[in-house]
Specification:
- This protein is of the alpha/beta class and 320 residues long.
- The chain has 2 domains: 3-174, Acetylglutamate kinase-like (Carbamate kinase, 3-Layer(aba) Sandwich); 249-319, 2-Layer Sandwich (Alpha-Beta Plaits), CATH 3.30.70.
- The protein has helices at 16-30, 46-57, 63-87, 119-126, 152-163, 197-205, 213-222, 271-284, 308-319, and strands at residues 3-8, 35-40, 92-95, 102-104, 113-116, 130-134, 137-139, 145-147, 168-173, 194-196, 226-230, 238-241, 249-255, 259-264, 288-293, 297-302.
- The strands form 4 sheets. An 8-stranded mixed β-sheet has the order 3-6-2-1-9-11-12-10, with helices on both faces.
- The longest helix is centred in the N-terminal third of the chain and has 25 residues, at 63-87.
- The relative contact order is 0.12.
């Protein structure tokens, strides 16, 4: 029997209607005779709301107490989803970070996972339960709650997948996968069906928000295929793995306000693409400060704010 790990982001569990949609997706995997482990984020903007509420109480709350507060968002999500699945006739159990055995270092707000004791998870799976784990959190040697930083639920999911030697780790969100550019900025951005860990890590480090960079590093280390999909449809997503289909440019990312990065395997040898990109920049008459080319990335820093039109023009010469 295969083990699969499913992670659902905050927008995926933001309401009862969306929780019901998530529950049905989980059931589809469970009914195919999979050991099914689910990682959940806090609902919607819960984490932002909790941060705002803490600021109303204290200008400088301790990191320890912030971890206690912020971890409650994921615990609400896991409990609600477990209740719903049980109501639908499917055995489910929710586990906090410490119940799931996620042991971290002593750093609050941005803890590092040091070890996972999966005994409790395996016990529940052996009883054919759907195991729902609160993302983003663990515990330290003092038995204090710790959190893993923004995007930490991705890290939880892939670390759990590695520990359980899962067949796949699915990351569900409100986008259908990894795109050649931000689809909210570039309407003709194309979904990338497959890319390597190194390519995805380069995109994440340059500001792409599809996956947390720490989670990609864990996926690569343990060889866990990561599948990025949408919660809201059944379209095929993007597979991140060791497989590299070809030497090609995969995406363009605008980081902050004055940096553009173009990512792809073997990009340092793609002189034709580099020449086209530089021609577009020269014709735009935008002052370029620095150009850095590596095996998987071209990063360009500019003197002033980069308009979205420049990103669009570079995307056009690369992908059309």
């Amino acid at each position: 029997m295969d083990t699969i790990v499913l992670k659902f982001g905050g927008s995926s569990v933001a309401s009862y209607e969306r929780l019901k949609m998530v529950a049905n997706k989980i059931i589809d995997f469970y009914d195919k005779n999979n050991n099914t482990v689910v990682i959940v984020s806090a609902q919607g903007k819960t984490t932002d709301r909790l941060i705002k509420e803490s600021e109303e109480i204290s200008k400088d709350p301790s990191d320890r107490e912030m971890d206690v507060l912020l971890s409650s968002g994921e615990q609400m999500s896991m409990a609600k989803l477990s209740m719903l699945l049980n109501e639908m006739g499917y055995p489910a159990v929710s586990l906090t970070g410490w119940q799931a055995g996620i042991y971290t270092n002593n750093t609050n707000q941005n803890a590092i996972i040091e070890n996972i004791d999966a005994t409790r998870i395996k016990k529940e799976l052996a009883e054919r339960k759907i195991v729902i784990i609160a993302g983003f959190q663990g515990f330290n040697e003092n038995l204090d709650i710790t959190t893993l930083g923004r995007g930490g639920s991705d890290t939880t999911a892939i670390a759990i997948a590695a520990t359980l030697e899962a067949k796949n780790c699915y990351i569900f969100s409100d986008v259908e996968g990894v795109y050649s550019a931000d689809p909210n900025m570039i309407k003709v951005a194309k979904k990338i069906p497959a890319l390597s860990y190194k390519e995805m890590l380069a995109m994440a480090n340059e500001g792409a928000r599809v996956l947390n960079n720490r989670s990609i590093e864990i996926g690569e280390k343990f060889g866990i295929p990561i599948i990025s999909k949408s919660t809201f449809n059944n379209e095929s997503g993007s597979v991140i793995s060791n497989v590299i289909e070809e030497e090609t440019i995969k995406g363009i990312v605008k980081k902050d306000l004055s940096r553009i990065s173009i990512v792809g395997n073997g990009i340092i040898r793609n002189t034709k693409a580099i020449r086209r990109i530089l021609e577009v920049i020269e014709n735009s008459k935008i002052d370029m400060l620095n150009l850095d080319v590596t095996e998987t990335k071209i990063s360009i820093d500019f003197k002033n704010v980069v308009p979205n039109e420049l990103v669009s023009k570079i995307h056009e010469v690369i992908f059309n």
